[in-house]
Amino acid sequence: MRKPRQEMIAETRSKLIAAGRRAFGTIGYAEASMDDFTGEAGLTRGALYHHFGDKRGLLQAVIMEIDAEMTERLNEVSAVAPTRWQGFVDECSAYIEMALEPEIQRIMFRDGPAVLGDISQWQNTPGCIAALSRSLDRLKADGEIIDIDTETAARLINGASSHMALWIANAENPEAVSKRAVAGFKAMLGSLRRQQ
Amino acid sequence: MRKPRQEMIAETRSKLIAAGRRAFGTIGYAEASMDDFTGEAGLTRGALYHHFGDKRGLLQAVIMEIDAEMTERLNEVSAVAPTRWQGFVDECSAYIEMALEPEIQRIMFRDGPAVLGDISQWQNTPGCIAALSRSLDRLKADGEIIDIDTETAARLINGASSHMALWIANAENPEAVSKRAVAGFKAMLGSLRRQQ
DNA sequence: GATAATGCATACGCCCCGTATGTCAATGAA
DNA sequence: TTCATTGACATACGGGGCGTATGCATTATC
């Protein structure tokens, strides 16, 4: 036991985040009992209150973790695209696909905003919106898209994507709806492109 | 006292809906104690459970009431517009403005979806989306907009609008953000119009 | 090595919810 | 009219989750 303490503390924090994330992502924030999921992590509510203040504080930490992962994924997608425009479209598609994942949908698009208010303007705009914004900035500098405020456009796309994802995920036949949704979404994206 | 009973019952129902609506719209669904707001209406939780099954049932009733009001308002807006395109743009603007009202924002865009899941595909799509959809159908028939699935477009606009509203409402300086948001939103709408 | 401080668990009380039960008025049939 | 039944609503009870206060052990500080 050479380097405990700091390490043990970090471990406790990450255990709590992982346990909360699993509970929030499956049964949802409101149904998740702090006693239950801290117990599953081998801890108690005492540790949670100590590290995160309350249940909302833990949700915030969970969201920041997921947001970082989403940002990373978006950056990877745009990095491998042959053109910037293609990279942007790929990014948007990836965003919708992520929004279809139950954990992300539940935490980032349902419970998160409901419990914490508008997540998207915490710090200095979270990563995944900033990523879209940056892509739009580059496209605008290249003269590839119409004249539009890029942060606004990023938020429009963000809002549209998440609603598309909700629509698809809750549809009776998700595949059919997905086709319609993605086609319509790409049509909207295409209309942002400068006709050339 | 000639026609009580049915009338008293309806009155109880509407009292509960009004009380719940006020509580949900101000302090929010999760914070609203059923004992409190039924008490303010001169009733008890017994009446609520009898009429609506549970707290979620009441929320559902509240949402249906608000949705009907929103639909009515959208129809009025588009009815008085000089052209169909203008009517559509006005409808979208009205939609954003409604989404800025605290009660609507809280109940329809925050707590509603979080508690009940995707509201927009309950029955046969609620009124306010159907209203947008109808406007788009007419525009498409007139050849005024690009070829796009109208329900998808309505949902895209719906999602974009509500996120714009959230962005504005939670911004540090709502007026400035509102200008950017509305300008960007109209640019997006304009890009849906067939260039003529 | 004594003391302070930190990480975390335990203990307590409150409030809120769901259900089971009770009550009373209105209705309908004899 | 009377009486039984149903429905509208209140009351009563129990459980569970949350927040806070408190306790305890281990580590940092001197």
Automatic annotation (TrEMBL), chains A, B:
Highest taxon listed in the record's lineage: Bacteria
UniProt keyword list: DNA-binding
Signal peptide: none
An MF annotation (GO) of this entry: DNA-binding transcription factor activity
A Pfam family assignment: TetR_C_41
Record domain HTH tetR-type: where: 10-70
DNA-binding region(s), residue ranges: 33-52
PROSITE patterns the UniProt entry points to: HTH_TETR_2 (PS50977)
InterPro entries xref list: Homeodomain-like_sf (IPR009057), HTH-type_TetR-like_transc_reg (IPR050109), HTH_TetR (IPR001647), Rv0078-like_C (IPR049484)
The protein's name in its UniProt record: TetR family transcriptional regulator
Organism: Rhizobium laguerreae
